[in-house]
Structure formats: structure tokens, C-alpha cells
Design a protein that fits this description.
Blueprint lengths: L2 H14 L7 H6 L66 H6 L33 H15 L9 E2 L2 E14 L2 E12 L5 E7 L7 H4 L16 E7 L6 E7 L5 E2 H6 L7 H20 L12 E3 L5 E3 L4 H5 L7 H19 L25 H10 L9 H8 L2 H24 L1 H14 L16 H13 L12 H13 L4 E5 L6 E5 H16 L7
Helix pairs in contact: 7-9, 7-11, 9-10, 13-15, 13-16, 14-16, 15-16
Length: about 525
């Protein structure tokens, strides 16, 4: 049956049956088992002034006659998916740090939906990616989920305190007045709420009373997107020594600036450094407003994510270790701001990484040929060359229009997340519909059961599934039109009264039913399938 004959059949149906609304009994009278039926439209006796509305029919034809096929004048692959149909990457100004940390966009995985190599996609047909989130964002989120759920084999104990499934992340070296000490970052899952956390374990021997450990409590009230939230601190001998453990939020795929950039010798652009300064200043503003100070701010304690989000780690460690004995709060806060300049110098290669006290450190200089005059002024200010007192408000003043650029970047990311959430919001409903349809159709174990043979409602569901997913064009090539699939599933979920014409696989029978009736058939068949009183042969 060609497209012209199908159109003529639809016109004939409109003229002969303007108010065709089949019921269950009438469907059983029609021969819907695959043999020709005797004028299905003439059995309707009701009349209505409402005109018949038939959905555009793109009938599945699996049993094609070779003599009826016409040679296709188009070459295979004229409308290939991909290339021009793919969405542009949202973050067009990716820094080297982002490119290094972000998962490979060209890597193959099991989540990406592709069209056949020689597809028959028409220009007006929507590709698969049109109805999904941005591919670069999806790969980052998939990498974060994999990072959260993966467990690395190690010699760590299985459980300590209220945390289990311990997996090592990295180990960093910090410095204080007594010398250097190592801190091991460990990912673990809580038995209380099931969330993943980062346990920072101080490897040197440590013993403290509960009063000292309670010093971490004041950090729990500090809320900022730029710091890893502090939850608790405790001591344990599960590692074979007396270790101090501080629990922070786990940031998937985030690693320290030292590991991510400095150790790899990555040359970052000036725009990234401006963003780094503004994010650190925003986080320190929240910390200083609470009357606290980080005191251990360095390239080893600042983490960066694949999306260039910056987080301050190890907040509260200095308070528990009592590193601030000889400093007032104001001087410790000044040390935090001076540490930003030290981090910048470490990244651009003008100083050596160290977490020791920054008091009395000699200011450094950067090349005028590589950076703008505004950045050089900010760099000198953060290193104490312009004034002995550093203030966060002055940092914002020196940043000037870069603050608006940072706000625009944040809003672009928020818009991308919002649009992606809108695309994924209704996917759950469509998945439930597809699951129910596939539960009740073509069950091989029930072929011999006369009460479950594919007749009546179940045969109607099978034809609708072919109509939605098994489209072909005039030459018999598969058509993967996502707009057709999503549109029909949404109408089915809403129970629309719109009519759709379904054709049997041998093209000898034709049914015109509404989406509401198809939805009722699916619900009834699924309830019968899961009914506890149903006995199967």
C-alpha cells in the first residue's frame, strides 16, 4: 500500500464514518487477528457533529513486496544524524583545567542514542539529542555518578564510625610550625543517610579531648557554595594509629589545584585566574563573616571540579589542631587573603607551593606581557605590596567588570541546568508507559494460553507499538523520528480523544481508535498481568 492509497483510505474513512468511536465489543466483532475485516467503518450507528480527527499515519510495513519498492533517488546517508544536528557545547570558553578534568566528549558509552548509519531522517525530523540534556553536561553528570558509586580496592578498613565502603582519593602534604604532615582524603558512604562524604584523615598521631573536637561545631553553621561543608570530627584507631578524621561534603571529580594544574604544568588563561579569585573571595567572605578563618588555604586545600567550580577544603582543621595559638582572628583572616595571592603566584609559576605561615613573605612579580594591568594590580594588592591591609571589598573593586562576567557565566550555567531539567522532567511518565506496553506485548511464554493470546486489547497495543516505534519510509528504510515517538506517547499519557489509524503488519486490516481507548487497553492488560489471582499455564 503506497502513501497515495493510504491518503485515499483516510479520506474515504472521513466521508463514511464521521463519528466512528469503536467500543470493546465492536473491536471483538472486527477481525483484528490479521485477516481482512468486513467494512469496519460501516458498523457504527452513532452520529456526531464533531468531525473525525485522524493523526498523520506513517504506517509500519514490515512485509514489503519487492516489486512494489521504488528505487530511492537519494543516496544513503543524505540526512545523517549527528554533525549538524548536535547541540553546541554550553561552555565555549573552556579553560585547560576544564578540558583536562572533563570526561572525553568523543568517548563511547552506553547512554548515547544514535541513528542508523544510513538513516532516512528528513530535515524536519527531530534528532534524538533534541529531547535530551546537553551532551557535554550529561557526560559530566555521568562521570560524577560513576565517581560516587565506584569503590577502589585498598587496605583501608571497611567501616569506621558511621561510614563504610572507604575508598582513597588522594593524599596531600601540609605544613605548620612543627613541620609537615600528611592528610589522606577518603570517600565513604554514611550508614545514617546513605550519602557520600569525604573523610580527611590526619595521618600523624593525634589525641584530643571531646572539648577540642567540639571546636568544629562552629563551622557547621557556615553555609557557602564555595566551601566543602563541615559535618563532624572524631578520632579513631581503626587505621592502626590514633588518627583525626574530619568529615566534609564529597565533591565528585573535584581534585586539588596542586594535583589538577600545578603538578601537570597546565598554563591557565587570565580569565580563569579572575574566576578563581572571585570564587575564593566569595567563600572567604562567608567564613570571615562568621568570625572564623581557614588558616590553611593553599593550592593543596583548594579543589576544582570539571565545571571550574572552586571549593575550599579542610575548613576547621586548624581550629581542631590549635594552629592559631599565636594569632588573632583578624591576623588569621588577613593570612587567608594573602594566601589567595600566594596561590596565584604558585599557578603562574612565580613561587613555590607551601602551606607554611605567610607572614613576612616577600612580594612576587608577574610578567607585564602575559597579563593585563588590572590583573597585575590585583596580584600586587593580594601580595601586600600596595597596602598592608587587604579587604574583600577592595578585591571586588579591583575586579571591576570581571564580576559581571562571572555572574553571566553562573547564569548561563543555571539556564543550561534549568533547560535540561525541563527536558528530563516528563521522561519518567514516558518510561512507565513504554514499560507497561512491553510488559503485555509478545510474551512468548503465554502464546498457548487462550486467555492471553494477542487478540482484542493486546493486539491493539501491539499495533500501536508498531505505529510508534517501527516506522519506515516509502523505500522501506527505518525512520527514527523522536518527535513522532514523544508526541504520541504524550497523547497516550494524556488520554487524548484524537483518533489514530493503525494497520496490521500484513497491511490487510485497518483500525481507527483514540488514544484514550489505547490507554484503557494498556491499563487493563497490565492490571490483568500483575493480578495476584491470575493463574498462568
Amino acid at each position: 500500500m503506497t502513501t497515495e492509497s493510504m491518503a485515499a483510505s483516510q479520506a474515504k474513512l472521513k466521508a463514511s464514518s464521521p463519528a466512528f468511536k469503536p467500543s470493546t465489543s465492536k473491536l471483538k466483532q472486527m477481525n483484528i487477528s490479521g485477516t481482512p475485516s468486513a467494512n469496519p467503518g460501516s458498523s457504527s450507528s452513532n452520529s456526531s457533529s464533531k468531525p473525525l480527527k485522524i493523526a498523520p499515519a506513517f504506517t509500519p510495513r514490515r512485509l514489503l513486496q519487492k516489486q512494489d519498492e521504488k528505487p530511492n533517488s537519494k543516496k544513503d546517508g543524505t540526512w545523517r544524524a549527528g554533525g549538524n544536528s548536535s547541540k553546541p557545547v554550553a561552555n565555549s570558553e573552556a579553560t585547560p583545567a576544564t578540558a583536562m578534568a572533563r570526561p572525553d566528549k568523543n568517548a563511547e558509552d552506553d547512554h548515547f542514542l544514535k541513528h542508523p548509519q544510513a538513516s532516512s531522517q528528513m530535515p524536519y525530523m527531530k534528532p534524538a539529542g533534541y529531547f535530551a540534556i546537553d551532551e557535554a553536561l550529561r557526560r559530566v553528570l555521568a562521570g560524577e555518578m560513576q565517581s560516587e558509586n565506584s569503590v577502589v580496592e585498598s587496605d583501608l578498613p571497611f567501616q569506621i564510625h558511621n561510614y563504610y565502603s572507604l575508598s582513597p582519593i588522594e593524599t596531600v602534604e601540609l605544613y605548620d610550625a612543627s613541620g609537615s604532615f600528611g592528610i589522606q582524603a577518603i570517600k565513604a558512604q554514611s550508614i545514617v543517610d546513605g550519602r557520600h562524604y569525604c573523610l580527611h584523615r590526619i595521618t600523624r598521631a593525634f589525641s584530643a579531648s571531646q572539648v577540642v573536637l567540639n571546636a568544629i561545631d562552629k563551622w557547621k553553621a557556615v553555609q557557602s557554595p564555595g566551601i566543602a561543608q563541615v559535618h563532624e570530627a572524631f578520632t579513631t584507631r581503626a587505621f592502626g594509629d590514633s588518627s583525626l578524621v574530619i568529615v566534609h561534603d564529597y565533591k565528585p571529580l573535584a581534585s586539588s589545584l596542586k594535583t589538577n594544574i600545578i603538578d601537570n604544568g597546565v598554563a591557565v588563561p587570565e580569565a580563569f585566574l579572575w574566576s578563581l579569585v572571585l570564587q575564593l573571595a566569595s567563600a572567604l567572605r562567608a567564613v570571615h563573616s562568621a568570625g572564623l578563618a581557614v588558616q590553611l588555604l593553599s593550592a593543596s586545600t583548594v579543589a576544582i571540579s570539571p565545571t571550574n567550580r572552586v571549593y575550599i577544603n579542610l575548613c576547621g582543621l586548624a581550629d581542631v589542631l590549635a594552629l592559631s595559638t599565636g594569632f588573632s582572628v583578624n591576623s588569621a583572616q588577613q593570612g587567608d587573603l594573602l594566601a589567595i595571592g600566594h596561590i596565584l603566584g604558585t599557578i603562574v609559576g612565580t613561587s613555590h607551593d607551601s602551606s607554611a605561615s605567610l607572614q613576612g613573605q616577600t612580594p612576587v612579580h608577574i610578567s607585564a606581557a602575559s597579563f593585563s594591568a588590572e590583573f597585575r594590580e590585583l596580584f600586587n594588592y593580594l601580595n601586600g605590596r600596595l597596602t598592608p591591609v587587604i579587604a574583600i571589598d577592595d578585591i571586588l573593586r579591583l575586579a571591576g567588570s570581571r564580576v559581571f562576567a562571572e555572574l553571566d557565566a553562573v547564569r548561563r550555567d543555571a539556564d543550561l541546568m534549568h533547560n535540561s531539567l525541563r527536558l528530563e522532567m516528563t521522561n519518567g511518565r514516558l518510561v512507565r508507559l513504554m514499560c507497561k506496553m512491553n510488559f503485555v506485548t509478545e510474551r512468548a511464554e503465554n502464546d498457548m494460553d487462550p486467555e492471553w493470546s494477542e487478540t482484542g486489547d493486546r493486539y491493539l497495543i501491539k499495533l500501536f507499538r508498531d505505529y510508534v516505534f517501527h516506522l519506515v519510509n516509502e523505500s522501506g528504510k527505518p525512520v527514527a523520528d523522536m518527535a513522532h515517538v514523544v508526541g504520541n506517547l504524550n497523547k497516550l499519557d494524556a488520554g487524548s480523544d484524537e483518533k489514530v489509524m493503525l494497520m496490521s503488519r500484513d497491511e490487510k486490516s485497518c483500525l481507527v481508535v483514540s488514544y484514550r481507548e489505547i490507554k484503557r487497553c494498556i491499563e487493563d492488560a497490565y492490571k490483568e498481568l500483575v493480578a495476584p489471582s491470575k493463574s498462568w499455564r
